[in-house]
Amino acid sequence: MGCCEIPRGLKICLIATAILIATLAVVVLVLSLTILKPKQPKINTKSVTLNYIKWIPFPFHLNVTLGIVVSVDNPNYGSFQFDNSTAYISYRGTAAADAPIEHDTIPARGSHDITMTVVVIVDSLTSNPSFWVDFTTGCLNFTSSATLHGKATVFKILKKKVTTYTTCDLSVYIQEQNVASVCKSNVKY
Ligand SMILES: *[C@@H]1O[C@H](CO)[C@@H](O)[C@H](O)[C@H]1NC(C)=O
Ligand SMILES: *[C@@H]1O[C@H](CO)[C@@H](O)[C@H](O)[C@H]1NC(C)=O
Ligand SMILES: *[C@@H]1O[C@H](CO)[C@@H](O)[C@H](O)[C@H]1NC(C)=O
To answer: Is the CB–ligand 1 distance for residue 32 below 6 Å?
Structure first.
């Protein structure tokens, strides 16, 4: 036996160990690229209801109180944390109301509902010339939007910054006292 020759038994053992390590590395790599890869959480508007409406013709006052429920779904095998945010209601491009969304952590593969009450005091919108045209049709169209910024984390090492949002077109029917909504969700990377 030469000085640097490796005994046969040890050689087999080293090769077997190397194969095992390589196999584990491939498994970990495949898992981290597939099911463990941080995915986009999604925010959806589940419902919009007209909680309260009060109209006084003179002096003009219109209080439209909306109840908005959005759900935040986290598809990850790790938690999704989002920062404080704000939901906005606008009327023909003008901000009309907002409501705070408090920061939260959605557990792995979990979902939370956020319920908001948004009071739209329409009085200040009456300076918009289109307002009176819309008002006489009995239908006021608003848009709502909510955006969440956060971080999806799997095993503390796989992290991804996430922005997800939902917007709705809302039609408030003043006489009928109801609201129709068409919502969509999207994702920004
Ligand atoms: C509008 O209506 C809501 C719900 O009843 C009420 O809480 C709020 O104080 C009202 N706001 C105004 C300015 O009338
Ligand atoms: C988020 O909002 C809550 C309640 O409004 C507040 O207590 C907290 O300090 C805010 N957190 C951040 C990071 O701004
Ligand atoms: C308000 O939205 C409804 C539904 O999308 C639409 O039919 C209507 O024309 C809109 N009204 C105005 C004034 O834009």
So the answer is: no
